[in-house]
Write a structure and sequence with these properties.
This protein has 116 residues and is an alpha+beta fold. It has one domain. It is 38% helix and 18% strand. It is built from three helices and five strands. Helix 2 (41-55) packs antiparallel against helix 3 (71-91). It is globular and about 40 Å long.
Amino acid sequence: MGYEVRLHAGFRETPVYYVADPEETTDHEIDEAAEDLRLGPDLVRELVVWDEEFQATYNADVPQDSDFSSPAQEGAWLERGRRLAARIHQESPVVTSVEYRGYGAIPSGAVVFADQ
C-alpha cells in the first residue's frame, strides 16, 4: 500500500494528511504518521519543530493578526517545510507522493514530490 501525503500546517491542526483507512479522518498526529509512514526519529523531530514554529505564530486574542514576525522568518519556515516534504517522500518506503502546501500559501499541486 502506498500513501499520498499532504503536508499543510493549520492553526490547532496536525500538519500531516493521508488516507490510512477510508473510515477515518485524513489528518494524523505526527507520531501516528511516523508509525504509519515509517519515518525516522530525526525527521519526526524536525516535523514537530516545524509545526511548533507555525503554532507559535497564532494570536488567540486576535486570530486574524496571526503571522510570522518577518517575511524572512516566514520564507525560511516555508523552505524548511518544502525540504521536510521532500524528505518524507525520499525516506518513507510507503509514501508514493507528497504535496506540500505550507500553510495554504502554496497553491494546490504546485509542489509535489512523487514516484516516477
